[in-house]
Amino acid sequence: MLGIVSYGAYVPRLRLQREVVVKSNSWFDPGLAAHRAGERAMCNFDEDAVTMAVEAARDCLLGLRADQVNDLCLASTSLPYASRLNASIVAQALNLPDELGAMDVTASQRGGTSALINALRGDGQRRALVVASDRRKAKVASTHELTNGDAAAAMLVGSEGVIAEALATYSQTIDMVDQYRSAQDATNTYWEERWIRDEGYHKQIPAAIKTALGKAGIAAGQVDRLCIAVPAKGLPQKLAKMVGIDAARVQDVLSAQIGNTGAAHPLLMLANALGQAAPGEVIVLVSFGQGVDVLVLRATEALGRLPRRRGVAGWLAAGRKEESYLKFLAFNDLLPLEKGMRAEADKLTPLSVEYRNRHAVHGFMGAVCKSCGTYQWPKMDICINPDCGAMGTQEEVPFADRPARLMSYTADRLAYSLSPPACYGMVEFEGGGRLMMDLTDVDAAQLEVGMPLRMTFRIKAVDTVRGYTRYFWKASAATPLEN
pLDDT by residue (tens digit) across 382-410? Predict the structure, then answer.
């Protein structure tokens, strides 16, 4: 039986309050007040589609062996590189094997579901990790600036330990241009909402759902959870009624807490549904964008045995209100800032050096001495334990998931940071290994010696002259799941 083996999600910590955006732009468009309720997920300055994909995949692979993943597919419409395999960065950060098939799926709002359907059509011999992640920009003072959101989700497909079996999948492709973005533009252009609703949603989605249910041999009344990734108020319920599915079965579209996360949204809704579902429940997932994708799934008994994931609910609980609209604009490169002389250092990245150190830098691989059990980062020929000093006894181990604590810290307002103060400190890992690291997603006033930390994959620096993004790991405050 081929199906979903595990799931994961990631939602950034910052939640921009829509009210502050409306207040700032009401002089220009009073109509924005219709969207003032709730909040939207907002990337920190050191996050993008790649870093969010890594975090969602880590959640998905919790308790599983990364070396058992055979294929990786990264779906996004906001990847940092137009000519580089973005999935290779994710693969290295996750320490997936070199013998890996990897691809990027881009330019499609239903890229995540299309990739998942493709994986579910496999022969069951290979495990495929499907990750969807989006950090989309929107025009200032637009409705989409308020309704968009940033997030990622991941699904692992295989034939053993299946938690949700695929009963049927269905896809159709129709070149109806509801939105688009050219290669030269930073933001999307949208067409008239009523036309999209009447000609697109109403005509295409119900028919696609009926076809998929027919293929699965499932009646509308047997659907327990309907996930329609169209974050428009009341619309999923209306579409459910058109198909004959009880509106009470419609899953929360997460628009009030997160927003529309683009290509990531269907898988994000599916991750949320799997986090709530009971074995035996039928889940229908629908995504829209130049056609429709529909997946009909049934949760199995294995879902109840899957170790707890943080999932959507966990990340929602860890959110922090952000009430600075100017910070949001600056983080999204929509507001030029005077960064000062300290920000003018050349960020040239020697690509050959990065390649040679890719396991230590992107994979955060350290080592443990087989003689004395001391951990250290980076891996070296000699054990750093003064009572050991053995040579050639180092065995590679990943440090990203090792427990760590803060030994010392600084909140520096002289060093350049797009989100001052720049917080950094000495991090000590359990069993050995110390490293001076940047701290992220922390409040300077809450830093204290001994606080537990978790590692998170982030942007280290951006070479704006050459258009290159350098990634590394940072430390953030651990939440109960890590403690």
Answer: 999 999 999 999 999 999 999 999 999 99
Residue type at position 473: W
Amino acid sitting at position 203: K
For residues 196 and 177, what is the distance between their CA atoms, to the nearest angstrom?
9
**What residue type is 316 in one-letter code?**
L
> For 137-146, what is each residue's pLDDT tens digit?
999 999 999 9
At residue 270, φ and ψ (nearest 5 deg) are -65, -40
Residues 6+ apart with CB under 8 A from 438: 422, 423, 424, 458, 460, 474, 475
389: left (phi over 0), alpha (psi -120 to 50) or beta: left
Residues 75 and 112: beta-carbon distance below 8 Å: yes
User: Residue 457: which residues within 8 A CB-CB, separation 6 or more?
Assistant: 51, 54, 55, 93, 400, 471, 472, 473
User: Is residue 128 exposed (0-12), middle (13-18) or buried (19+ Cβ within 10 Å)?
Assistant: buried
- For 305, half-sphere exposure in the C-beta direction (CA atoms, 13 angstrom radius) is 8
DSSP string, 11-66: --SEEEEHHHHHHHHTTT-GGGGGG-SSEEEE--TT--HHHHHHHHHHHHTTTS-G
CB 369 within 8 A of CB 393: yes
Residue 105: φ, ψ to 5°? -120, 120
Give the residue among 148, 120, 185, 394 at the shortest CA–CA distance from 264: 148
Q: Are strands 189-190 and 179-180 parallel, antiparallel or unpaired?
A: antiparallel
**Rounded-to-integer distance, Cα 283 and Cα 295, Å:** 8
Distance CA 373, CA 223 (A): 52
Collapsing DSSP states into helix, strand and coil, what is residue 74? strand
Kind of pairing between the strands at 101-106 and 71-76: parallel
Does pLDDT of 341 surpass 90?
Answer: no
